[in-house]
Structures are given as C-alpha cells and as structure tokens.
UniProtKB/TrEMBL annotation:
It is an enzyme of class 2 (transferase). It comes from Cyclobacterium plantarum. The keyword Metal-binding does not apply. This is L-histidine N(Alpha)-methyltransferase. GO terms for biological process: methylation. InterPro entries: EgtD, EgtD_Methyltrsf_superfamily, MeTrfase_dom, MeTrfase_EgtD-like, SAM-dependent_MTases_sf. Its EC number is 2.1.1.44.
Length: 310
C-alpha cells in the first residue's frame, strides 16, 4: 500500500529526536470542532481582539489604501466570517473590490462563497482551492492592485526565520502599490498567554490529545491517551509559545506497524505559536523589503493588524 503524507509525517516526527507532530494535522472533523470550542473560551483572547480591530479600525486601515479598487486575496480564508467585516467596510468606502479567498479545502471555500453572497451580495467572489504555495501564482498578473490578507495570527505557526521566509515568499507575488495585511498576536503578560494555551477547562489538552486519537483511527495505532499529559510554555524573551504532550511513563506504542518507544516524561513537540512586539514587526517589514508599515491594535494592545506596503 502507498504511504500517505499523513503516515509519512507522523512516523518521521515520532521517530525524530526530539519527537514532534505537526499542527496542520490537528484539524480533522473532531479537531476542528474542538478548535471552535477553543475560539469561544474566555481565556482565548485572540479572535475577540482581531475582530475588534476589524470592526472598529477598518476605516483607519482603509485610509492607508489609496487606490479606488483592489483584489483582496486571503490566504487560508476559512469560512470568511471575520473577513466580511473588513470587506463590508471597503464596500462602504466605495472601493471596487474582488474577493479572492484561497484555501486548501474546497468545502470551506463553498461555505465562504455562500456566506459572502448572503452577507455582501454586491461583492465579486472568486475562490481558488488548493495549497496557497501553489495557488498564489494565479493572482500575480491580475490588473488591480492587491491587498493580501493573512489573518488569525497564522504567521505565529512559523518557527524562527521561517516567518520571514514566508513573508518574503508572498512578496514575490506582489507588485508596487500592493499591500500585505497581517494579523499578529503581540507579546503581553506571560500568564495571559499561557492561560490561552493551557486553559483550566482542559479544552486545549483535548485538542492536542485528539491528534493521538486521530493517529489511532487512521494509522491503526494504539496510543493510550491517558498515558500523556498536555504542557504549554511561553518564553517572554523570544516570544515563543510551545505546546507539548508528555509521556507519563516509559511505554511503547504501535503506529502503522512500527514500534515507537517513549521514555518516562519524554515530550512530543506539538505546536509553536510565536508572539511579536511592534518593534519585531518593524524589523520583519524591513528585512522582507516592504517600504512602509502601519500597525492597528485593539484597545488592550494584545493584537495587531499590520499593513506592509510594497
């Protein structure tokens, strides 16, 4: 039988030292449902802060966009409910816009398009399904200037220099007069951040453990999930939030016909979520070769939507 990417990545990650799994695999049907629970946790401040900016500061952002019309390209668009706030503000300001949501899932793009037709019937919507590392090529030669959105603090999932590499990659599909609009979680009190990634109700733990359950379901594995605990850490100097599953004991697990051994208290690195200061973002903008940046924060300065101009 041909080995799937999922099987290959899981086995490679669990046979590495240190062990690691990949956050992109959190989002099976059950994982996506648990993530919706996380989005509504009182400790998980990110969506509320970003929505506040899009709701209350959209006009300030639009003042920095001088052209009469734009292609608004969204990377990893999802269902588009949050983005609709910004698109609505653009239409109210009489901007001639076409919304181009990019997402790997054709199903979620169908939901997105249906939502936009209902919410903003005058909006032109042109979804493109596929990995945006491939689909970005299709928007390079369009006539109108572009605003490329990467919201939801998704940039935080890139470790170290990979965030800068990604932004530089996106810039290769941009021209003079285009803008990159980035949703970024800012550095703040460490306890505020840790509460969002290690909540008292244990929803984040359930989200992480579900990946082991998915491996059991899809790769004929026998993880005993009671043998693993969730641990989150935050380094206020680097801004790195990391999530781990810790093996509570020495144990052996079968995964896709392979035996994976764990020492007592051995970690599996599950996820990184990078936090930035505004000064960090200024440095990234400069290194990536954008000409200017503007930061629009929520009332607590927990989150920024930053606009980089080519």
């Amino acid at each position: 039988m041909t080995q799937t990417n999922f099987e290959k990545d899981i086995l490679n990650g669990l046979q590495s030292n240190p062990k690691r799994l990949f956050s992109k695999y959190f989002y099976d049907e059950k994982g996506s449902a648990i993530f919706q629970e996380i989005m509504h946790m009182p400790e998980y401040y990110l969506p509320g802060c970003e929505t506040e900016i899009l709701r209350l500061r959209a006009k300030d952002i639009i003042r920095e966009l001088p052209s009469k019309g734009y292609d608004v390209v969204e990377l990893g668009a999802g269902d588009g409910t949050k983005t609709a706030l910004f698109l609505d503000a653009l239409l109210r300001e009489k901007k001639n816009i076409t919304y181009i949501p990019l997402d790997i899932s054709p199903d979620i793009l169908s939901v997105n398009e249906q939502f936009m037709r209902q919410k903003l019937p005058e909006l032109a919507v042109k979804p493109i399904a596929g990995d945006y590392f491939d689909t970005l090529k299709s928007i390079k030669e369009r006539d109108k200037p572009k605003v490329i959105l990467f919201l939801g603090s998704n940039i935080g999932n890139f470790e170290g220099e990979k965030a800068l590499d990604f932004i530089q990659f996106v810039k290769t599909f941009m021209s003079k007069g285009d803008y990159f609009m980035l949703g970024v979680d800012l550095k703040k009190h460490p306890r505020t951040i840790l509460s969002a990634y290690d909540d008292p109700a244990g929803i984040t733990k359930k989200f992480n453990i579900n990946l082991l359950e998915r491996i059991n379901r899809e790769l004929n594995a026998d993880f005993d999930t009671a043998g693993f605990d969730h641990y989150a850490s935050y380094d206020p100097l680097s801004g790195a939030t990391k999530s781990f599953l810790i093996s509570n004991m020495a144990q052996k697990v079968q995964v896709a016909g392979q035996t994976i051994g764990f020492h007592a208290f051995e970690p599996i690195h599950m996820e990184v979520s990078q936090k930035y200061s505004l000064e960090d973002l200024d440095q990234i903008r400069f290194k990536a070769g954008f000409s200017t940046d503007h930061h629009f924060t929520d009332s607590k300065s927990y989150f920024s939507i930053s606009l980089f101009e080519v």
